[in-house]
Structure prediction request, 1007 residues.
Amino acid sequence: MTASTVSGSPGRSHLRLSGRLLVAPALIMLLVTSILPFIVTVRFSLIDYRLLGPKEHVFIGLTNYTRLLTDPAFLPALGNSLLLIAQVLAISIGLGLGIALLLERVVVGRGLLRILVVSPFFVMPPVAALLWKNLLMAPVSGFFAWIASLFGLQAFDWFARAPLSSIALIVAWQWLPFACLILLTSLQSFDREQREAAELDGASPFAIFRYLVLPYLARPIAIVVMMETIFLLSVFAEIFVTTGGGRASSNLAFLVYSQVMFQYDIGAASAAGLVAVLFANILAYFLVRAVGRSLDA
Amino acid sequence: MKGARWPALLSMALASCGTGGDKTTLTIAMVNDGDMARLKSFSKDFEATHPSIRLKWVILPESTLRQRVTTDVAIRGGQYDVFTIGPYEVPVWAKRNWLTPLNDLGREYNADDLIGPIRSALTYNGALYAAPFNGESAITMYRKDLFQKAGITMPATPSWTFLIQAAAKIHRPEQGVYGLCLRGKAGWGENMALIVSMANSFGARLFDKHWQPQFNTPEWRNAVTTYVDALRKYGPSGAAANGFNDNIALFAQGKCGIWFDATVAAPFLSDPKTSTVSSKVGFAPPPDQGLGRHSGWLWTWAFAIPATSRKTAAAKEFIRWAAGPPYINLVAHRLGWLAVPPGTRKSLYTNPDYRRVAPFADISLNAIKSVDTSSPTVKPVPYVGAQYAAIPEFPGIGTEVGQQFSAAVAGQISPDEALAEAQAAAKRQMAAAGYYK
Amino acid sequence: MRRPRSTIAFTILAWCCALAIAFPLLWTLLTSFKSELEAISFPPKFLHFSWTLANYRDVLSEGDYPTALYNSLAISIGSSAFALMLAVPAAWAMAFAPSRHTRFLMLWMLSTKMLPPVGALIPIFLFYRDWGLLDTQLGVIVLLTVGNLPIAVWMLYSNFKEVPVEILEAGRMDGASLWQEILVILTPLALPGLASTFFLIFTLAWNESFWTLNVTSTEAAPLTAFISSFSSPQGLFWAKLSAASMLSIAPVVVIGWLCQRQLVRGLTFGAVK
Prediction:
């Protein structure tokens, strides 16, 4: 839309053409690799296909979908998906921002600090869950229980009292580095003169944060929200390792997972997977509306 | 010119892949328990005596292994030549012709030496479909020192009532000792293995002969209420998320007074290198309630050959070695008798060298021998299996039902609510699978 | 310099936070040098235990670490390189030659990641079986390339958006071709962004533990498979698992350390002026 692109020598139509040509490889790759499985998944969702069932796969229409929607575990799973995403986003962005604000002012040992802060990102999800559950959160012998005992407190029974939040904590730990790094680098390029001018005008640190820094961070925060949400939709290893699922902790991805892994019901799993895609798209629609303006900037 | 050479090169490359210089490569998928890890470390010995065969291993945790192997065999991926499966899989898979029968392993293999229930659990329509590598049942483990201090003695055959009373007497949470440890983590191979076999001893069954789930019966109510109450009163905090691995760590640390679980835990707890209570641990048979069925279960990891494998002869050669007497003698000779894979052969339990190092030998053998997978319950049932029902639907039902019982242990719902949800879930899944036409 | 006291306070606080975040990993590192019994002892043992390398020795002798490491490197580097090769031109086009459809396209790309991987397991497995891609590095690379492509496009797009259009236009005026524009003018300017994108998708590929486990068995099995062979066997295994985890994390930490400057400069998402 900028006027300057019009005057470029290759001409606007040429630019547009080369734009299309350059998008093409990525687009074709994604189309082929996602449309093919997608079509097969749609087909599977309409038949009675169990790995351990009879060889003939009968067409059963929308039965797989109606079964899913009437499953009493479905709505809780939907709610848990949302809650999990919301909690992880809140923890990882909230803490990430706080730590980024701190790190920005640090003068000694920045490199080492950064590596320490990024390190959780390097741990594979199932391993992270195992380590947290058994070495840290275990109420009888975990590290947190030991800290509680130092203060004479009763250890918190994480997975019985707050299963979803405990899982959110583990997942948030893994995504904190991502949020923190992106926010930190944005902060580092924040216009210092603007801040100093505001300080001279007598603005409080809170006001500066609220009216200068935070709006400036809107775009990186929006990106973090979008990217993390996409990944958080398919969290399952952490749930499987810690609680093994249930009304209080299963999300939609776990539901799909258990349909493949325990019921070997590919038809039902395909239907659930497609419902998950629909759910994700609705979520994305609202997200884009909420954060869209900062994405375009 | 240049283009013409490629197919030739390619076919040469393929040919060399296939034979590998007259060598057959076997891909073996196994569960990652200690016996299997030991087996892998002996692969050089096999390759030395069988120079035409090379072994490649895929070692995975139980849940991952099961999913990978089931997927592969069901859609004929043909990735494996040998894999470990158990008595749950054998009848279901053999019925679908997914496995190669193993009746012809020869005299040296000595199939008659196999412990009866183990052999019959791996037999379908008269043919052996998997060769057992190790076998387990369940065993009561308890702290002799705590029992002595509290003035209680373990009877020769304990009942659940006794175990719970004893747990109440030795429960000292303020000193970090919990009366009773049991599996609480949801999963058909976690809490459900325990609860279903416990329920068997309470006279309960999973299905009646019309495949109606039985979670609404008084027997189930009795069993589940007992289990939930005991664990909530005398169990460690966090019990609802504890699986086998969590409990073995707790017992090894001296945090459990009584633990009822798989017999494979016994050698670990008797070994001072892996247990702080090695000299204080006692063993007793699985508890019962005087109804003629105890709470023992039966599991075995056994080698099977998928019907898709084209290397059947080499695969059988491997199984004859790994699941046969030669391997047991090799391990005993090199690492001692305690390192031998237990629970499959009668001869092991009559071997004086083994009996000397394994104080739990008789209890284990009796627990295994007294489980009849074809008649596991007090009332008659249409399925086989002690801690499971060998039908394709069981893992799905077990998982969902297990989640309800775990929620009850966590205190999120009451045992009655859990049972009602369990009944509804089981009915729904059985109906979806077409059992009630 | 103006407020040294508060700077010191902030530095100390920042170090405390960083140590707290890294604590689970540092604790795992410590555990990897303990015996299995010490690993589960309560109260926990900090430095007073008999340090041992036995876990590392066991893990290295029981699993095939070199092969797994090689596969992980090949798969992660291969898939990240492929993803960048596809993503750079696409991101250029979206940033500098946007059309009405660009925004839709970007969202659609992200939406390809919305199907839970396990939902597509059987279709992919069937395709791979028929095309002979099971247990091949190529097969895993293709899956991870596709999985990370949307992320790469998004990150690069944001980075390219920060490159002043005037510089590119000046190049065009001087008669630079499209390839020259991308390779000679844009790439150097966006190098930090490229580096950080590469590192991000490299790490994601390194940690990917669904596809890497499900479409490999022996030949192409990476570190995720190596590590899962040590997770939850029967008996105590914490020290061993810790050692295996450390062995599989170490390579990424080294790479992360080496390119952290670029990483931090590049992860700006429109902040660099």
